[in-house]
Design a protein that fits this description.
four-stranded mixed β-sheet; L-amino peptidase D-ALA esterase/amidase; globular; alpha+beta; six-stranded mixed β-sheet
Length: about 350
């Protein structure tokens, strides 16, 4: 049964319309895959891998432009230096837990060898957030085979959310967090473009959580929904991946990635010192092929970026909230329990502010 999403509760944020699936996969060609590990023996594991393909396997020879923004850098996203230098992304993106970056990095390299990708070398993009409060990360449960399964299983269409993939063991605003996605349609003079977002949300304190401006975290406080004493409050991270089918240059992708900060702030993220808040945006509207000495490139006019900026902010905010709403209460490592955001209480609070439609 599909997980409940924010709009299923009658809560709609923003003014722009979502795409058909309200997911990053509304950008044509984007595929998402997961491998989720939940077991209790021989150690308690609540973790996984999320894989994102900006295009299909033709990505190896048909690169997309990309840009990175680090809101707070207490985290990791491999391959960022080469993206900052060259502005190109020609391999899939993976998100996992902090201590499994190496295994997932190796998996993308193995995949390139298996698929006979023409590049002589590869600098894969692997991002992370820490799930050690709910999963025994010290046992290094993720292998390259798990990452390959996520990559091979990636597909278009609706995207599962909550306790799945890399988001399996994550905590957000002291509720159960995880994976979330959303999209928006941006209308420009050049036509309509889609901006889609996928987040791995593992950040934030309870009292800062806001939904459509409503102080939900202060209302559904720790007296109503308890927080485990070991749950991090001012530590944690969020990874945001934005996709668009607009024809953007790398610097425009970087500008789009920065706007994820707006969506994060609306939900209550402030970029604490212990948080790794790293955002990547890629654009599929151009095709860069290594066998072409000159690539024909288009660029959206600077003023045309404004609708995309709004779309990125709204989609990021809703993706975070979808992660919270879809996630389910989880008991994990050392018996710690992290409770889900209760839907009935959320609807009640939003109704008090007349924010439920």
């Amino acid at each position: 049964m599909p997980a409940v999403r924010l709009r299923d509760l009658g809560i709609t944020i923003g003014t722009l319309s979502p795409g058909s699936w309200n997911a990053i996969t509304d950008v044509a060609g984007v595929r998402v895959g997961y491998e989720t590990l939940i077991r209790d023996k021989p150690s308690v594991i609540r973790t996984g891998v999320t894989a994102i393909w900006p295009r299909g396997t033709e990505l190896w020879t048909d690169a997309v432009f990309a840009g990175i923004h680090s809101f707070n850098g207490n985290g990791e996203m491999t391959g960022w230096a080469w993206i900052a230098e060259q502005g190109l992304l020609a391999s899939p993106i993976c998100i996992t837990n902090t201590w499994s970056v190496g295994a997932v990095h190796e998996a993308i390299c193995k995949l390139a060898v298996r698929e006979r990708a023409p590049a002589a070398w590869l600098l894969p993009v692997v991002a992370e957030t820490y799930d050690g409060w709910l999963s025994d990360a010290k046992t290094f449960p993720i292998t390259s085979e798990h990452a390959l399964a996520a990559l091979d299983g990636a597909s278009s269409g609706p995207v599962p959310e909550g306790n799945v993939g890399g988001g399996t063991g994550m905590i957000c605003h002291e509720f159960k967090g995880g994976t979330g996605t959303a999209s928006r349609i941006a209308e420009t003079e050049a036509g309509s473009f889609v901006v889609g977002t996928l987040v791995q949300a593992n950040y934030g304190t309870r009292d800062l959580l806001r939904i459509d401006g409503v102080p939900v975290g202060r209302t559904i406080n720790r007296d109503i929904v308890p927080t485990h004493v070991d749950t991090p409050r001012e530590a944690g991270s969020i990874i945001v991946v934005l996709a668009t089918d607009a024809p953007l240059l790398p610097i425009q992708c970087q500008r789009l990635a920065r706007r994820a900060t707006v969506g994060l702030a609306r939900a209550g993220g402030v970029g604490f010192n212990g948080s790794g808040d790293i955002f990547l945006a890629f654009a599929t509207g151009n095709h860069i092929r290594p066998d072409e000495p000159v690539s024909p490139v288009r660029m959206l006019a600077p003023d045309g970026m404004n609708p995309l900026f709004q779309a990125a902010a709204e989609a990021t905010e809703e993706a975070i909230l979808n992660a919270l709403v879809a996630a389910e209460t989880m008991t994990g490592h050392n018996g710690r329990t992290v409770h889900a955001l209760p839907h009935d209480k959320l609807v009640e609070v939003m109704g008090q502010y007349q924010a439920v439609q």
